[in-house]
Amino acid sequence: MIGDWTERFQGTAQLPRAVRDRLLKVARITHMAEGTQVFGPLNVPDSLFFLYEGRIRVVQRSDVGRDIVLYRVDAGESCVLTTACMLAEEAYNAEGIAETDITAIALPKAAFDRLVAEEDAFRAFVFAAYSRRLIDLLRVVDDVAFGQMDVRLAARLLALAGDFKEVSATHQHLASELGTAREVVSRILQDFQKRELIAQSRGRIALLDKPALRDIAAAD
Amino acid sequence: MIGDWTERFQGTAQLPRAVRDRLLKVARITHMAEGTQVFGPLNVPDSLFFLYEGRIRVVQRSDVGRDIVLYRVDAGESCVLTTACMLAEEAYNAEGIAETDITAIALPKAAFDRLVAEEDAFRAFVFAAYSRRLIDLLRVVDDVAFGQMDVRLAARLLALAGDFKEVSATHQHLASELGTAREVVSRILQDFQKRELIAQSRGRIALLDKPALRDIAAAD
DNA sequence: ACGCCTTCAGTGACATTGTCACCCAACATG
DNA sequence: CATGTTGGGTGACAATGTCACTGAAGGCGT
């Protein structure tokens, strides 16, 4: 189905051919449909995940019914939070959701351990992945604790739009991105609309004035 | 000065004698006075730190003049954020402050790498440390994004008090623990005082009714 | 003891954000 | 066209953050 996936990852592409062949043997390739929970408090995987194709959204759920997106795992990255899940006894309530249909490589813990022990390149890859996520979380804490909502929303709209000039998302979705309430998003979007920075229709938002939005987002 | 520090850490106590002797040779022992910045954006160490004695407070500083405590590193733990700092190119603004006089073991990166590669026990220790911090940060995000201030403050007072019934901290200190403003802390403490849960004097807070505070803190 | 200075805490007005209880509009479906 | 579901708008209020002050408490030098 897919060929030599070890090409795809920084941590594996540099490994000797023999090691990579071994990996191709022991790893299982799994597919999951969009919307599937990849991992969560009640769904702790026993393997390390490498995301071959697709995107995973890692979300923190609150018990008051609000969510916040912690970060996204893109194709070519590994999902280290799963390893943290494996080791953690403490309670937490983050979960990973397949944001698209995904193809992932599940590497059994034993093989993972061995690889980390034996291969410098792989070890560096894993530590870099951990570090990246730590830094991502620092950023989230900073945003949530000190950032203003309009700034955060402008930034998120731009990020979600990418090169396009429209975002397909309900106010509720955006609220769940930022860990706030729908009403708050509605209010701010109304304001943006009045200032002609965006145009709204049901479930979609057109970014009319990206430079201005960038200005707002930069006030961070 | 200090004897065999390898006794002190989960990750090192289980290592073979020979390895530990090697460690004792390559590691540098450093002392720092209370208040010293152990690491920070402009002060990136090139070694991994093991905290032998004392406590480090890891703080996120905002550019609007507020702070928030991310977690504390206690004696016997390692400070993995420093390794993240080493690897990170991205900007961040967390820093570690010696909360007491500290004694730390600085293990050069090369020795660290070798140890991770060769010793299962040590590797497990390091990964556990990373996971712990990730989980800690999840908790912080949850608190900041979804927690109510009175709940968080009650919890923090109890945590800072430990077994004692008094906390030595100004309102400003408490605000910096929680990432809020002094006025907010003052307001909530006033309320607690009116309800006779605490008594205040300049720079100190007596916890009069810990059970009630625990009730408030549990509403999380 | 006395005044002086610095730090800490209290206060009211206001802005921002979160919560609640609604309403109405847009779309899908039979 | 009738109806149900989902997305979005609104006003009132609560909680939190900001600002510009005030005064109180304690340290210190004389």
Mean of all residue-level pLDDT scores of chain A: 92
Order of secondary-structure elements of chain A: HHEEEEEHEEHHHEHHEEH
Distance between the termini of chain A: 45 Å
Quick one: CATH superfamily of the largest domain in chain A? Jelly Rolls
Structure explained in plain terms:
Two copies of one chain form a homodimer. Chain A is α+β, with helices and mostly antiparallel strands. Chain A folds into two domains: 5-145, Jelly Rolls (Sandwich); 147-218, Arc Repressor Mutant, subunit A (Orthogonal Bundle), CATH 1.10.10. Chain A is 46% helix and 24% strand. Chain A has nine helices and ten strands. In chain A, strands 2-6-4-5 form a four-stranded antiparallel sheet. In chain A, strand 4 (55-61) and strand 5 (67-74) form a beta hairpin. In chain A, helix 4 crosses helix 5, helix 6 (149-161) packs across helix 9 (210-218) and helix 7 crosses helix 8. The model of chain A has no long low-confidence stretch (mean pLDDT 92). The interface between A and B is large, with 42 and 42 residues. The structure holds a DNA duplex (30 and 30 nucleotides).
How would you concisely characterize the structure shown here?
Chain A has nine helices and ten strands. Chain A has 220 residues and is of the alpha+beta class.
What are the key terms here?
Jelly Rolls, 2 domains, alpha+beta, homodimer, DNA-binding, Arc Repressor Mutant, subunit A, three-stranded antiparallel sheet
